Amino acid sequence: MKRRGDIVPFDYGVRQHKRLKEANYPHKIRALPHVIERIDLLSMSVEDAAVEAAATNQIVWLQRLLPLVASQVKDQVGCDTTDIAAARGHCEAIKLIYRCWVQPAGSTFANAFSIPKPCYNFDILEALELAVKNENDKIARVICDKSGFPGEILRWAAKHDNLEVLRVVYRFEDDYMEDLYRAMIIAIERGFLEIVKFLTMECGEGLLEYAAGEFGFSCPLVTAIAHGKWEVIEYLDTQGMYLDESEDFDATALERAFASAAGKNQLGIMTYLQTKKKFDRTAIDKALNSAASCGHLDSVKYLCDIEGYELSAAALDKAFENAAEDWNLEMVKFLGGKGNVSRASINTAFEYAMNEPGIFRGKADDQLKMLKHLHSKGCIDPEVISEDFAHVARNCHVDVVEFLYSTGSTSISSDIVEKAFRKATRENSIEVVEFLYNTGVVSPKSIEDAFLKAASRGDLYVMEYLFSCGCKFQSLLEKALCKHSSLPPRVLLFLKQKQEITLM
């Protein structure tokens, strides 16, 4: 349910006045145009008046206004009046709004045999959230009772771990079975045990019977396993909450859950899953790769110790590469001791380790240690370093840049160094720029281009360093000053100061 803001008049909600524009005034007043004009300046629309009436709990006034609201803004006004009444605790106002607009039209007899369908598309969940936030149980109950949206509210309650709201709208009827089942799955995914217990005790068996006859519903127990909710897993297992009575779970789903648990370092769940299924070598390989990718050495050791499991060469190489990419030296050393990692995999791991720091990686020192460890194996191809050196100069710490240059200098051409220099002046630290300049292979033309580009983007730090390199900068300063119309003021000031220094 979404607010239909695209059809709301442009001036709706803007006018904050005192009287209703459509009011009928006595003839004596209507005969005075200048008075009517002043009244109009202080008047409000029906929509604004309805919101104000709901905010102040003026029931009689609100009852008169609701039928007058323009049809194209009924949804918006319904949202606003309900929200503000809920926020201020006005139960009667909410009841009136739902009675006028939400409750179904037609006879009582006809309504008794149909699910209430709202006349308009109100965003009731926002009002419900306000009531719950303000701890106004009475308002929350009114919204739940009168809204006509039990399915929406069931899922909202499950998502927000609100058992009290869920109890209010709970109905174990055929028309609400899908909503109940989806609410239970939501609670399972989030680990909300109390809601899971309530639904299991009230209608667990019925929900399983319903889901077994439908397509596309996940097993409650497998869902809990996949999301790593251990307390929920234990409870659902004791209650027999699985779709197949023989407990013959879908093998693919269990394998995914096993890999997920390994990636989250959930050893208890991994042990539990092994009681449900004997995983083959392929499934364990996937789980090991997941654990190595996430840096969980305990899970990797657990998997390697499974009876009858032999780590394949392909799985070892893949896990080794993933661990190196995350600069996890302890993991790399452990995997290196479990078998012979291929030369190609070591080179791939070295290439991955040269990549820029990620949010889940360690410090620059970890990257340097990883690169030194991999290089010590004596099988790193020089081309691996030269191909990515410019990229490293753009992102990595100066210690990493120095190490790679010292180990791959024979394969790193002057063109590569100049490319790295250009990237470093744009995106890395002065320390990296200084190191690359001191290699002696950076041409004056590259320095000049770097200086002019630094001036255009206002990078005074790079400009200051390049100026101090000792090159002839009088002509360069003049070139930069020729572009004064496009340079930031602080750059112009810097250039003029340097020009004065060079002329002294």
Can you give me a brief rundown of this structure?
InterPro entries: SecEffector_AnkRepeat. With 504 residues, the chain is mainly alpha-helical.
What does this structure look like?
- The protein has four domains: 1-148, Serine Threonine Protein Phosphatase 5, Tetratricopeptide repeat, CATH 1.25.40; 158-249, no CATH class; 381-442, no CATH class; 443-504, no CATH class.
- The protein is built from 31 helices and two strands.
- The chain has helices at 27-30, 33-41, 46-56, 59-65, 74-88, 91-102, 108-111, 124-133, 137-146, 150-159, 163-169, 177-190, 193-212, 220-226, 230-239, 251-263, 267-276, 281-293, 297-304, 313-325, 329-336, 343-353, 364-375, 382-395, 398-408, 414-427, 430-437, 444-457, 460-467, 474-481, 489-503; strands at residues 19-20, 43-44.
- Strands 1-2 form a two-stranded parallel ribbon.
- The radius of gyration is 35 Å and the shape is flat.
- The termini are far apart.
- Mean pLDDT is 78; it is low at 1-18 and 104-122.
- This is Ankyrin repeat-containing domain.
- Beta fraction: under 5%
Number of helices: 31
Count the beta strands: 2
Uncertain residue segments: 1-18, 104-122
Shape: flat
Q: Give the tally of structural domains.
A: 4
What kind of sheet is the major sheet? 2 strands, parallel
Q: What attributes does this structure have?
A:
504 residues, mainly alpha, Serine Threonine Protein Phosphatase 5, Tetratricopeptide repeat, 4 domains, 1% strand, flat, disordered N terminus, SecEffector_AnkRepeat, Ankyrin repeat-containing domain
